[in-house]
Write a structure and sequence with these properties.
- InterPro entries: Lipid/polyisoprenoid-bd_YceI, TTHA0802/YceI-like_sf.
- With 179 residues, the chain is α+β, with helices and mostly antiparallel strands.
- The protein has a single domain (21-177), classed as Lipocalin (Beta Barrel), CATH 2.40.128.110.
- The protein is built from 2 helices and 8 strands, in the order αβββαβββββ.
- Strands 1-2-3-4-5-6-7-8 form an 8-stranded antiparallel β-barrel.
- The protein starts with a helix and ends with a strand.
């Protein structure tokens, strides 16, 4: 009898696994300075939501961010983000409450974890929604703000209003269940 229970547990466990991954999520940052507003976009957000372990892990290669102006992109990477030395931004954290996901029913979530960029780590809160959009997929929509000085990212000295000190970051991704 014990062998049968153990066998059923081992066979049934993968069915209930709630681990979701993406390699093509979207990240947008918005810089709204008084004299210049622009956004940067990347469609290369990698992420994991493991509801069984209550683990979130998302990272972005900062070299994939594009603002629509090549020269600005190069200056952003070389002079401010210093992507040769610090190529990635990463968030690792946990959900405050595990969501009960039902098809097409968005659930508000809050995650607390560590955001790392430019070699600096800081604990932050991220608010968003998780929506089960198919039997094996969830959609994540989340946002948070980054104060550049908190991460030792300098503002341009010559063009004072070109870059806002406070950047709004949004994440959008469809994550597929990993078996």
């Amino acid at each position: 009898m014990r062998l049968l229970v153990l066998f059923l547990f081992l066979v049934a466990s993968p069915v209930f696994a709630q681990k979701y991954v993406t390699e093509k999520g979207q990240t947008i940052f918005i810089s709204e300075a008084p004299l210049s507003s622009f956004e940067g976009v990347s469609k290369n957000l990698n992420g994991l939501i493991d509801l069984d372990q209550n683990l979130l892990d998302f990272y972005l290669d900062l070299n994939t961010l594009e603002t629509g102006i090549g020269l600005r992109d190069r200056h952003m990477r070389e002079n401010y983000l210093e992507t040769e030395q610090f190529p990635f931004a990463e968030f690792t954290g946990k959900l405050q409450l595990l969501p009960d996901l039902k098809l097409n029913a968005p659930v508000e979530v809050k995650a607390i974890g560590t955001f790392k960029i430019h070699g600096v780590e800081k604990e932050i809160e991220v608010f968003g929604t998780l929506t089960k959009v198919a039997e094996n997929q969830v959609q994540l929509d989340a946002s948070f703000e980054v104060l550049l000085s908190d991460y030792s990212i300098p503002l341009p000295k010559l063009v004072f209003y070109e870059l806002a000190e406070n950047q709004k970051v949004t994440l959008n991704a469809i994550l597929t269940q990993k078996k």
